[in-house]
Description:
The chain is an alpha/beta fold. The chain has helices at about 5-30, 45-60, 80-85, 95, 115-125, 130-140, 180-185, 200-205, 215-220, 245-250, 255-290, 300-310, 315, 325-330; strands spanning about 30-35, 60-65, 90, 140-155, 170-175, 190-195, 210-215, 230-245, 295. Helix 2 (about 45-60) packs antiparallel against helix 11 (about 255-290). The chain is globular. Bound molecules: 3-deoxy-alpha-D-manno-oct-2-ulopyranosonic acid.
Amino acid sequence: MSASMTRRALLSAAAATAMMISCGVAFAADKIQLRMSTVATETDQRTKALAEVFGPAVSEFASYEPHYNGTLFKQATELEAIARGNLEMAITSAQELAQFVPEFSVFSAGYLHRDAAHQVAVFNAPLMEPFKQRVEDTLGVKLLTVMYLGRRQLNLRTDQEIKTPADLANVKLRMPGTDAWQFLGRALGANPVPVAFGEIYTALQTGAIDGQDNPLPTVRDSKFYEVTKQIVLTSHLVDLNYLAISKAVWDKMTPEQQAATQAAADAAAETARGRQLTLEDELVSFMKEKGLKVYEPDVAAFRAKVQADYLASDYAKAWPAGIVDEINAQAK
Length: 332
Ligand code: KDO
């Protein structure tokens, strides 16, 4: 091959590459950017399902860009970020929404949702429509789907056996930072301490807190079992998160794109729910193998105190009349 032919070939290859790159850039720029911020890890079942199921399903028209471990926005600041147009998507919670739409605190109440199926039934029931509408009107946030986090259990670094709420009287229990979370900690009988999710491990390790509460898959994923001694199976909150998207971004989508985004969100949530439920069943033996004590306390005593505290609280004053009965009626 002559030198000039090699040069011509190289030049045309370079030109083709440049064209591909510029097309690619133009193509990417045409796509809807969906930055998703969460404090969850990359190995959490929900974020994994979003990356595996949601991202690919919308990839023709949107670029799904997840940011984990609170690196883009800190815990509980994501909703404001969406409201201000600085973020497109987040995994949020009823406790966070309650800061802006007080009646959402009903979905943060302990011993209310029975299980994962109950969460889905409630989210899709007509009773949920005014809640979703208020979030759209107040924050410009659309709640796409409900994600199952799991049954929250107490996970302590102390040895003392916990039977009833009275046994938690002097326990410094880490709860997430918002008021609705702190209230749950007090309703359990503990002394709640606000700590961001990403700081729990160190706080347990150093003894800044006596314990934390999260579902077993989270205890394993974030390795809290390494720095704790026991798990008390209170199941005090069948916890949920919502996948949230900016309403402004949603409104710019075509009806076909909206339908695809909705279906992708539901499919990812369904995948994650199945995996999370399987893990919850398996992880009791995992925790025991790791040397933790795992046992049931007097759950009826916890349920009675927690439910009574919620019903007597200021939160309950913001709940629409009859809503607890309507939520209960969605349970199978
Ligand atoms: C937590 O901070 O304990 C919590 O479980 C609260 C949930 O609402 C959710 O934010 C969750 O953290 C993260 O998704 C990490 O699992």
